[in-house]
Amino acid sequence: MRSIVSFYICYLLCLGLGLACVVCVSYWNHRWRGGFAWDGTALQFNWHPVLMVTGLIVLYGNGAVLYRVPLTWGQNKLPWKLLHATLMLLALVLSIVGLCAVFDFHNAKNTPNLYSLHSWIGIAATALFAIQWVVGMAGFLLPCSPISLRKLLKPVHVWLGGSILWLSIAACISGINEKLFFVLKGNGNGTQSYANLPAEAVLGNSLGVLIVAFGLVVLKILSTLNWQRPESRPEDMAYAPLLQEENE
Amino acid sequence: MRSIVSFYICYLLCLGLGLACVVCVSYWNHRWRGGFAWDGTALQFNWHPVLMVTGLIVLYGNGAVLYRVPLTWGQNKLPWKLLHATLMLLALVLSIVGLCAVFDFHNAKNTPNLYSLHSWIGIAATALFAIQWVVGMAGFLLPCSPISLRKLLKPVHVWLGGSILWLSIAACISGINEKLFFVLKGNGNGTQSYANLPAEAVLGNSLGVLIVAFGLVVLKILSTLNWQRPESRPEDMAYAPLLQEENE
């Protein structure tokens, strides 16, 4: 009982911090960066942070902790698997549209793509996410996939799932940091330097802190054994590994 | 047996990638950034990446996986606890000296400290590491600390331990990215722009990739239940939780 209460406190924190991240990144780009468009200008670029934070961090993190919600622990796991896959697909689509926003913007300005470390880490996180989604779909949702394969896949899926999240966080932190150095140069025409911490810098840095806090909560939920779906807990698996019809 | 072989493959990878990170960050600063000094100039700054990568990433990661090495699984855990604490202390000291390098450099140039998101994440990682070390020392090494406190502390220590590592990685990625944008401006006096991916940019980006690969391996080792010290595994604890003399 105490364990369920502390789970729900963490889960509410996860929902609240996720919402705060989306509001913060949207407000930043709306208020300080001129808003949104899809026309190859900087206004198209502005979709990039919003969609990456919303898709690759917030929706992804919420999709990852879904099986930890005790409401989903009924006999029939299938509807929750479908919801998990759907949330992750939505997260992946938003991330890919977010990448298109920045590629289009670069191409319109004849700026090369994928040279910075930020872009290398970001593209690696998205590519791993796409692979994870396809392999997860084939391994855990196709009825023809054998139990032995599912058992083999599961620890890799769980480890890679957490890893994609912290990789995405590293990509976001480096991206926000880079963007703030780009736009806050203090070049005399009204903009202040990043080093003076004007309001936009404080907002951008706070977005980074919110993302990190969200990641800490999600990875805490994922790593707490007591909060795992009972059939997946090692102490339960130890008693009936061979009878387990669906060990994943 | 198969599990031990795969552990040692991962562990060798962890040692090899850690060494590669240290060589790469040292070579970058020696070959492309003019080498090292402690004089308030950019040569003093060069200690910052070297010491942070060596302390906060490589030594820290190796200290974290120590209990997973089967060699350390003997009856007497105390010598390994002392080694774990010593490695972590060394990692903490290197990180603090690495911070002093950049603070001194900023102060000598009258540049403000701690304004960028990189610095916020980096200082948070180091502060959490210092707190984790002090609380870990008091909770797990002082003989007067009761078993009940150790049981309570352990999951927090393990979760925070992994979190500090990925936070440090996010700090390093954003720092390397920022540094490469600072120094590769393509301003005509012989330096090429980051966007053209000159040799220094490829080396810096590769350092980032090596750090991420190191983090993936360390967090894989930490998250694999089969590789935990037997007394700490949930399936073993389930049988004798009350007889366990030292459940940490």
Automatic annotation (TrEMBL), chains A, B:
Assembly notes: Homodimer.
Subcellular location: Late endosome membrane; Lysosome membrane
E.C. number: 7.2.1.3
Species this protein is from: Dicentrarchus labrax (European seabass)
InterPro entries: CYB561/CYBRD1-like, Cyt_b561/ferric_Rdtase_TM
A Pfam cross-reference name: Cytochrom_B561
Membrane spanning residue stretches: 7-28, 48-70, 82-105, 117-144, 156-176, 202-223
Function: Transmembrane reductase that uses ascorbate as an electron donor in the cytoplasm and transfers electrons across membranes to reduce iron cations Fe(3+) into Fe(2+) in the lumen of the late endosome and lysosome. Reduced iron can then be extruded from the late endosome and lysosome to the cytoplasm by divalent metal-specific transporters. It is therefore most probably involved in endosomal and lysosomal cellular iron homeostasis.
The protein's name in its UniProt record: Lysosomal membrane ascorbate-dependent ferrireductase CYB561A3
Cofactor requirements of the protein: heme b
Keywords, in A-Z order: Electron transport, Endosome, Glycoprotein, Heme, Iron, Lysosome, Membrane, Metal-binding, Oxidoreductase, Translocase, Transmembrane, Transmembrane helix, Transport
Catalytic reaction annotation: Fe(3+)(out) + L-ascorbate(in) = monodehydro-L-ascorbate radical(in) + Fe(2+)(out) + H(+)
